Each structure stands twice: as C-alpha cells, then as structure tokens.
Amino acid sequence: MNNYLPLSIISLGILAFATLMLVIAPGIEMARPEPPAGLRPYTAEEQRGRDVYVSMGCLYCHSQQPRAPEQAPDGERGWGRPSVSADYFYDSPHQLGTMRTGPDLLNVGARLPSESWHLTHLYQPRAIFDWSIMPAYPFLFEVKAKAEEGDVVVALPPGFAPAEGVVVASQEALDLTAYLLSLDRTYPAPEDGIRDDGYRPRGDAE
Amino acid sequence: MVTMGLLLALSFVVSLLALAFLIWAISNKQVAPDQHDARVIFEPGDEGHVDSGETATSRPYHFDTVRSGIDAVSTRPVAVLLIAATVWLVIGSVFGLVASLKLHWPDWLSDHAALTFGRVRTLHLNLVIYGWLSQVGIAAMIWVLPRIFHTPLRAPRLPLIGAALWNAAVLLGAIAIANGWTDGEEWLEIPWQLDLVLALAGVFFMVPLIKTTLARQVHHIYVTGWYFLAGILWFPCLFVIANLPYVHSGVEEATVNWWFAHNVLGLWLTPIGVGTAYYFIPKIIGKPVFSYAVSLIGFWGLALFYSQVGIHHLIGGPVPTWVATLSVVHSVMMFIPVIAVAINQHITVGQNLWALKESLPLRFIAFGALMYTMASFQGSIEALRSVNSVTHFTHYTVGHAHLGAYAFVTITMFGAVYHMLPRMTGRVFRWPALINAHFWLVVIGFAIYFFGLSIGGWLQGLAMLDGTRPFSESVILTKPYLEARSVGGALMTLGHLVFAFNVASILLPQRVPESVRTVPAE
C-alpha cells in the first residue's frame, strides 16, 4: 500500500457499498406512499408533546418497538403487537430506542388511557410505583396557592403533595400527556407490514 | 422475498470475494507489504532501543534533529487539541457520573430540565465522543502522520482554526442539548445547524493531513496511515449524510441512525485506536510488528465487515429481516480482522513484556489494544440473535459500549498522550507515580463498571424475557449493579482528574533544578 489515491477510492467505495446495503436498499423496500389504515397523524398538541418527549430524552430509557411473541413476552405485558415499519409513517425523528430501563411505550396510550394517571406519574413516578427509578419532572408543573379556571390539578397521594397549595400541569406537561395518550398502534398490522421475522420458527417464514 | 435473500447473499459473497482476492494478492506478492516496510517508523538508530524517557529516572530518549524538526511543527496544533480534549474529558466524565447516580437516586437534582437524566446522559455521550475522543484522535494523527511520512506537517495553522471552530461547536452543541434543542437521535443529538460548523472544522483538520500525505518523503504508507487516512474520509461522509435535515424519516431514519452510530465506532474511533496502537507499540518497543502482511487483512477486513454491522441495533425490530441478518453475519465476520490485529499487536507486546516495565505509556496502549480484542469478540457474540434477545435493551449493552469506546480507545489514547507530551515539551513528568495512579484508577474503576453492568444487564434481560415476572422485577434487581457502576465511574472520573493534572503539570512552565532536566540532544 504505497499510494494514497487507490486507498481512498477503495475505502470510500466500501463505505458506499455498505450504505447501499444498510440504508438505501431497506429504505426503498420500506418506502410507502400511504400510511396504514388506522394510523392517524399527530394533532398539533400531540406533536408539541412529541417534541417534549424528544427534548427530555425519554428515548434513552423507553423503546417504541414491541417484539414478536417468538422472541419476547411483550404482548403478554400489554405492550402491543409486533410493530411494522409502516407504524412509524408520521415519526421524525424516530424514537425506536435501544433501552428498556422503563417499559416499551408504542402502545402506552391504549394500555394506560388516563390523563390524570400520566400527570401524577410525570410529576412524581414514585407516587405510583415505589420501586420506580424514572426521573421526576417537577419543572413541568407549577405549585399554586389555588387552582384558577382552566387549570388541570394533579392528583397526589399524601406525602407527595406540597405542604400548601396545589400542583398544576403546565402546557408542556399537558402536551406530553396528549402525545403519550396518542401512542396506540392497536389497529391490525397491514398485510404487507415489514419487520424482522428472524425469530419465527423455521418453515413458518413465507 | 427471493430478491432480498439475493441481496443479502450478494453482500456477503462480495465481501468474501474481496477478502479472498486480498489474501490471493498478498500471497502472490501483488501487493507486497513486506516486513521491511514495517520499519518505516524508525529513524536510523531507533530500532532496537526502547523509546521511553517520560520520567527523570528513565534513560533519555533518542532525539534526532530530523525528527525534532518534524515534531516541532506538529507540537502547537497537537497541544491545542490535547488541552481542549482533556477539558472535555473531565466535563464529560462528570456528566457521565451524574447520569449514573441519577439512575439510582432518581430524585437527586431533579428541579431543572437541564439536569434531567435524558439530557445529562446525552451531554456525557456527545462531550466524550466529539469533545474528547475525536480531538485526541486528530491530535494523534497530526503527531504520527508526519513522523511516518518523514516530513513536517503541511499548513500547520489550519488545525488551529479547525480546533477553534470545533470546540465552539461542541460547546454550543452542549448548551443546545442542555436546553432541550436536539435532533433527537442517539449519537446525532447536536443540532444540524451546529453540525455544519463541525463539518467545516473537519475540513481544516483534513487538508493539512492530506497535504502532508501527498508531500511524504517515503514511498510506503505505514499501516497506521491506512487507518488514519481512511478514517478522515469515512467519518466526514458518515457525519454529513446522517445529519442531513428533512431527508430521513420513519424507520429509514432509524437505519441511517445505526448505520451512522455503529460506523462512528467502527470507521472512526476504531481506526483512531488501532492506528495509534499500531504506531506506538512497535515504536516504543523498538521492534517492528510481528507480521506486517497480516495487518493488511486486519485493515481491509475492518472496512468490509465493520461497515455493515450497524443494523444489529435493530434486531427484532420493524426492519426487513434480511438487513438485520446481514448485520448479524458481518458482526460475526469481524472475528477475522480482529484476530489479524490481535496477532500483530499482542504477539509484539507478548514477546517484549520487559518493555512494559520501561514505558508507562506502553502499559496504557497494550492494555487498550487487548481491550479492542475483547470488545470486538464480545460484540460479535452479542450480535447473535439468541444472545441479542437477552442483552439488547439492557445495561449490558452500555457495558459493551464502554469496553470499546473507553477501555480500548480512551485508554490507548491516554498512553499516546503520555508518550507525546515529553517529546512535545522537551520536559519530563515530575511525578511518574501519578501516571501509575491514573492507570490503576481507570483500570480498577472500569473493571467495577464493566462487570457491574454486564452481570446486572444480563439478569435484567433474563427477567424481561420471562413473562411470568412483572416488569418491575427487571428494574429492582438492577439497582445494586447500577450503584456499583457509579462506584466504578467515580474512580474513572477521579483518574481523569489525575490525568488532567499530569497534562497540566508538564505543559505549564515548571521550575525544575537543572540536574533533572532532560538533555534533548546527545
């Protein structure tokens, strides 16, 4: 190896080949003109909530990609059916995640449909689960002497409520909760849905 | 899906054919890296002598005028990059430690959005990757490439401009992330507007290195040069494509994300670490690497296989089966280049264990090189579907990531820094015991960190796979292991403070009695 130019060209050629295999080919295969029936776009409020989800870094502890029953008991835990690429039609940036320090959230809106529950849980997760290690988000809430008209008051068990006044959800907390409640991919998976079927027993594949 | 099966087979066959061709070419002397070429790193008189001399008690190092002319030009940009990198290492480690503590003290520092776990963890990652590792890597390139090309660095002012831009972008990126302005994908959080500045800074690093390459005074490009020169082409391509705004979306964005993130490890940090080890190990020992021909297989094997492993981060996810399988297959194929590098580096060290006593930097570098082998073997096994089902989504993966990026690359770079600084300044380290203390702090700290997360993560994975156990069990059982990780992380951070002190102590003007100063020329 005595020449710079061949070294550069071959190195870049190999990277281009890898890009073709890992990005371009699967990208073409997964490209869809239409979202699946049953998936609706995020509302403005839900999209704002999704931005809060992204900016708080929820991704680093919560995945959004239930596994197939052959691989893991995600369905039994109520996390939903195995997701397919079309389920993420409206998602950017993607939030598939690589950690389950907390549970999968792709169907959390279907599993935990109460706004009040989520607000309490976001304000102080340990008010609901004493074993939880999820961060509390007190800065998404405001402590007021008295709730004003239109305020959403957070229900808190004794010991977690402030000594005086009430805890009121900020717009960000309400948006985030709206996003969490919108996470619901319980509609049937499209017939031509694409996902990694590598755990399916042999002979069952096609 | 016959076509997709064909694509998968095609990719694998192409890589295998390329490797077979390479082996044929080597054995038929089509490309002839003979053992003689491995000696290009030595100046006349260097070979056969240990290149130590970091402390007042060790033998003064050989210092010829040609070499000092080369080093003198590189010293300024290297010093600037090293100082900045060290500052980011310390800040980045503190954020890492805070993030670790927050996982078992969830109500600690929870009053401000900037200090929430999701942001602190992200600050840690971006500061150590872009602030520390990338800059110390570029510093090593600026130091080593002119030496192996026997010519001074060209355009030595450009890296100074590059460093100013790069550090401004890293600082602004950190402020952006702390305030919730993020692109929202792992390893790509810095807003794309600031990524433009990073990319521009990269040009200021690349141009002098390429100009130096084209002006080289030796015919042969030493193996370290292959890794470094390919790395400075690969990384900009990856970085720019992955950060393009408004182009990627949905699951396609996820494949871009992991194509990028794993290639940052494989085609940027690994070339930095392996290239550095390939230069300093034989240089310090004073003997060429064990088998120079094998190093070709290590390099091209890395390029062919590592570039296609990224989608193993999406195994069992909403991606086509064939692309996940493709990445699993290539992950396993990584055994080939890793064994090739291992043969060269470990046998060279193993035949010269005496040198570990002579040279403190070599201890770091030899340890780091060993960890490259470990991390890669672990990664290949972790990509297997059966193993991945347990370890994916758990803290086990975090342990693995640190085995690669920390125990391998970071510790290798510590050694390189300790070797470069005395030659840059013409001074010695006044407190060699502190270098030793640094070594043991980070090695012991890392061992606690790694075994804590690996055991805890594995148990966490088993608990999550068992449908009869509630999810809460997988959280509760990891807590003691997360605490152990904080202990390990605290020792590592303490080690970094010692490292920063050592760097400062040799760079700052010192009042030393005339008798202990090294005499550069003999």
UniProtKB/TrEMBL annotation, chain A:
Cytochrome c domain spans which residues? 44-184
> Which superkingdom, per the lineage?
Bacteria
Q: Does the keyword Membrane apply?
A: yes
Please provide the record's keywords in A-Z order. Answer: Heme, Iron, Membrane, Metal-binding, Transmembrane, Transmembrane helix
Residues annotated as signal peptide: none
Q: Which residues cross the membrane?
A: 6-25
Task: Provide any one GO MF term from the record.
Answer: electron transfer activity
- Please verify whether the record's keywords include Transmembrane helix: yes
Which Pfam families would you find in this protein's record?
Answer: FixO
User: Mind telling me what this protein is named?
Assistant: Cytochrome c oxidase cbb3-type subunit 2
* Protein source organism: Pelagibacterium luteolum
Lineage of producing organism: Bacteria, Pseudomonadati, Pseudomonadota, Alphaproteobacteria, Hyphomicrobiales
From TrEMBL, chain B:
Q: Which residue spans traverse the membrane?
A: 6-26, 78-103, 123-146, 158-178, 190-210, 222-246, 258-281, 293-315, 321-343, 364-381, 401-421, 433-459, 487-508
The source's superkingdom equals Bacteria
Q: Which keywords does UniProt give here?
A: Electron transport, Membrane, Respiratory chain, Transmembrane, Transmembrane helix, Transport
* Gene3D superfamilies found in the cross-reference section: Cytochrome c oxidase-like, subunit I domain
Which InterPro entries does this UniProt record tie to the protein? Cyt_c_oxase-like_su1_dom, Cyt_c_oxase-like_su1_sf, Cyt_C_Oxase_1
User: Which processes are annotated in GO (biological process)?
Assistant: electron transport coupled proton transport; oxidative phosphorylation; respiratory electron transport chain
Transmembrane helix in keyword set: yes
Q: Does the keyword Electron transport apply?
A: yes
Q: Which SUPFAM superfamilies match?
A: Cytochrome c oxidase subunit I-like (SSF81442)
Species name: Pelagibacterium luteolum
Query: Under which name does UniProt file this protein?
Result: Cytochrome c oxidase cbb3-type subunit 1
Supply the Pfam families for this chain: COX1 (PF00115)
